[in-house]
Amino acid sequence: MNQTLLVRHPEPHPTESLLGYVVRLTEANGYASPKDLYRLAGVRAGRITVDSVETSILATITGHPVSQFEQIALTPKEKKPETLRLLGNIVDSRDLTLTYARVCPECIAEKGFIEAHWLIGIMVACSVHERAAVWYCPKCKKKISWLRSGLLVCQCGVPFSLPHKEESFEPELHLLDLVRRKALSDPILRNDTCMPEFKFAILDLRSTLRLISFLGRTRLSGTRQTGSTSRDVLRAAAQVLKNWPLNFVKLLRDIDPQGSNKNLAVEDFENVYKLVDQRFKDRWQGTDPSIAGDGLRGVTG
Question: pTM value?
Answer without folding.
Answer: 0.85
